[in-house]
UniProtKB/TrEMBL annotation:
Stated name of the protein: Glutathione S-transferase kappa
Keyword list, A-Z: Transferase
GO molecular function: glutathione peroxidase activity; glutathione transferase activity
SUPFAM superfamilies referenced in this protein's UniProt entry, alphabetically: Thioredoxin-like (SSF52833)
Native species: Larimichthys crocea (Large yellow croaker)
Length: 228
């Protein structure tokens, strides 16, 4: 069997398009010959470091995004719903504390990344399905509890998330994304034959599959395979 192709996924739970990319890549773990590496990072740092302007700050883009996400939710099979006040959720509250918490969960997890995967999914559900907060310790605890973490694991992760070690790690991963050329999320970096190839967005999977020598079966490969 050929060695697995490494794919790094840089993302932030404040980004709905990151959720789409995240779910697709988690599904394709079982379909493609890949090793998926989850790289939680801070979208605010990406925007600042790249000089990009979020689509939510451009009125025409913002209106399009709301319609676009509604269509994509059904296509991708992800329960996306725009928050009642997306500007408040995405820009005023942001995701710094959430991404530090995710980074802390990942730092603690020694065997695989199942916990960080589930915690991220629950945080996305809170902000992009249930219109709930993801910034307060109680909100993070509730998401982690639904993800299957114990009370002691949650307390440890919350404590760890405020340390310099975790803050520096999140900065470092965010800078790695910038070094790859990031200007938004999701960012996928495929390592093939020793060369990194960068893909931005949740609509480049077919091209990415072609470049890494795999077959694209749509955003829900289980359903596609059943039809075949």
């Amino acid at each position: 069997m050929t060695s697995k192709k490494v794919i790094e996924l840089f993302y932030d739970v404040v980004s709905p398009y990151s959720w789409l990319g995240f779910e697709v890549m988690c599904r394709y773990r079982q379909v493609w010959n890949i090793e998926l590496k989850l790289r939680p990072a801070f979208l605010g740092g990406i925007m600042h470091g790249s000089g990009n302007k979020p689509p939510g700050l451009v009125p025409k883009k913002f209106l399009y995004m709301a319609k676009d996400l509604n269509r994509l939710a059904g296509y991708f099979g992800v329960p996306l719903q725009t928050p009642s006040d997306p500007f408040e959720a995405m820009f005023n509250k942001g995701s710094l504390s959430a991404m530090r918490f995710v980074t802390a969960v990942q730092e603690r997890e020694k065997d695989g990344d199942k916990q960080v995967e589930q915690v991220c999914r629950e945080l996305w559900k809170r902000i992009w399905s249930d219109d709930k907060d993801i910034t307060e310790p109680g909100s993070l605890s509730e998401a982690a509890m639904k993800a299957g973490l114990s009370d002691s694991e949650i307390k440890e992760a919350l404590k760890l998330s405020t340390t310099k070690e975790i803050k520096d790690k999140l900065k470092r991963v965010t800078q790695e994304a910038l070094d790859h050329g990031a200007f938004g999320f999701p960012l996928l970096v495929c390592h093939v034959n020793g060369k990194p190839e960068m893909f931005f967005g949740s609509d480049r999977f077919e091209l990415m599959a072609h470049c890494i020598g795999e077959k694209w079966l749509g955003p829900q490969p289980g359903k596609s395979a059943a039809k075949l």
